[in-house]
Amino acid sequence: MNDIDAWVWWLVGAAALGIPLVVTALPEFGMLAVGAVAAAVVSALGFGAVMQVLTFVVVSVALIAVVRPIAARHGRRDPQLATGVDALKGRQAVVLERVDASGGRIKLAGEVWSARALDTGRAYEVGQEVDVVDIEGATAIVI
């Protein structure tokens, strides 16, 4: 065990940290692995154990403190391209048949849809423009 240089052990540690990174997809393991690689470089340059551990800690903590918030901020973004029924919410439609709480028909995105008024006491007449607030099955809910 004494015949193996410390930098090799740091690389083994980096590889060992790469396994849970792949299995769990937690980026923190990758940041710790990068810290271990940095410690291996410091070890290969001939620095002692204290400097190696200090390098591992500083690089790992710096990556977690800097990269993790940036990655989290990018992960919270809403998708920029809405597809399917989500793309229809918020669009305007034209009433083809009177729409009230019990039903009706609208023209939405070039297609005829069944529709229902969100407000049960409200009715929309033919030719009126309405806004789609939700889609329930094949029925557009309008205001």
Features:
143 residues, alpha+beta, 5-stranded mixed beta barrel, 3 helices, 45% helix
Major sheet: arrangement of strands: 1-2-3-5-4
Overall pLDDT = 91
Distance between the amino and carboxyl termini:
75 Å
Shape: rod-shaped
Elements, N to C (H/E)? HHHEEEEE
Spans of 5+ residues with little confidence (pLDDT < 50)? Answer: none
> How much beta, percentage-wise?
15-25%
Structural class, by secondary structure, is alpha+beta
Biggest sheet layout: 5 strands, mixed, barrel
Q: State the helicity in percent bands.
A: 40-55%
Radius of gyration: 30 Å
Total strands: the figure is 5
The number of helical runs is 3
Secondary-structure map with pairings?
Elements: H1 6-24, H2 27-44, H3 49-75, E1 92-100, E2 103-108, E3 111-117, E4 129-136, E5 139-142
Parallel strand pairs: 3-5
Antiparallel strand pairs: 1-2, 1-4, 2-3, 4-5
Helix pairs in contact: 1-2, 2-3
Structure report:
Helices cover 45% and strands 24% of the residues. By secondary structure, it is an alpha+beta fold. The chain has a 5-stranded mixed barrel with strand order 1-2-3-5-4. Helix 1 runs antiparallel to helix 2 (27-44) and helix 2 packs antiparallel against helix 3. The longest helix is centred in the middle third of the chain and has 27 residues, at 49-75. The mean pLDDT is 91.
Summarize the structure.
By secondary structure, this protein is an alpha+beta fold.
